[in-house]
């Protein structure tokens, strides 16, 4: 828990997560609005990837709720957890879309 507490209190990792979120969000938006994503097959791919991403979100939010008893909650720790949950969920969605596009 001490390592986890130090990790979520690290401002440099928080800033890295903020900078990581910008390009990955742009990539996700581009994947959503590509011409190949507008047809029936593309919407099915986005739907499958979104289901996987929402499951990851549920797991991460429950993990955050569980560890919130063990770490002191302040602005930095909440910002860190929310930022990295967002980053991980969006990354999972992008990777899932790319994998499904490659498979089909």
Please, could you describe this protein's structure?
With about 100 residues, the protein is mostly helical. The protein contains 4 helices and no strands. The protein starts with a helix and ends with a helix.
User: What value does the Rg take, in angstroms?
Assistant: 16 Å
Give the beta-strand count. 0
Q: Overall 3D geometry?
A: elongated
SSE series: HHHH
Poorly predicted sequence stretches spanning 5 or more consecutive residues: none
Beta fraction of the residues?
under 5%
Q: Structural class, from secondary structure content?
A: mainly alpha
Distance linking N and C termini: 43 Å
Give a quick account of the main beta sheet: strands, pairing sense, barrel closure: none
Mean pLDDT across all residues, rounded? 91
Query: Percentage of helical residues?
Result: over 70%
| DSSP summary: helix tally | 4
Topology:
Blueprint: H1 2-8, H2 11-33, H3 40-67, H4 75-103
Helix pairs in contact: 2-4, 3-4
State the gist of this model.
The chain is mainly alpha-helical and 104 residues long. Helix content is 84%, strand content 0%. α2 packs parallel to α4 (75-103) and α3 (40-67) runs antiparallel to α4.
């Amino acid at each position: 828990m001490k390592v986890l507490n130090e990790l979520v209190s690290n401002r440099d990792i928080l800033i890295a997560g903020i900078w990581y979120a910008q390009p990955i969000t742009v990539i996700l938006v581009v994947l959503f609005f590509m011409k190949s994503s507008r047809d029936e097959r593309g919407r099915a791919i986005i739907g499958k990837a979104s289901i996987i991403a929402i499951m990851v979100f549920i797991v991460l939010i429950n993990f955050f709720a569980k560890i919130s008893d063990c770490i002191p909650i302040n602005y930095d720790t909440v910002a860190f957890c929310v930022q990295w949950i967002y980053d991980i969920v969006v990354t999972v969605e992008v990777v899932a879309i790319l994998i499904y596009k490659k498979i089909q």
